[in-house]
Amino acid sequence: MFKDKSKPNNPKFQSFGQNANTPEHEQQELTRVPLPRGNQVLGILEQRLGANHMLVKCFDGKSRNCRVPGRLRRKLWLREGDVVLVEPWAIGGEEKGDILIKYNPAQVEWLKRKGMLKTAELEF
What we know:
Number of helices: 2
Distance between the termini: 46 Å
């Protein structure tokens, strides 16, 4: 008699790509959050400079010119305001570093709750 207008059957809400068959509430599930080890620091991406180079404001008070390593270049898509894990270089680590991980919004919330991110410095 009446058609069901729920999301999976309604073509208006149809999704494509790798997440087409997973419900929306399962897409942002929380997995183990990688924490900084050794000399790694958390940072917020301030500006994209081009050619896989970004300006990142790190939580140790320094701004670093960071790059995305070649093995992550096509997998890691970054925008301004993203929270990332930075590993400073052994030589020139005060100004330069590599971006290792981008945290998703659920992981950022977990880091805030644990006190690892200072919410005053976040500009979301």
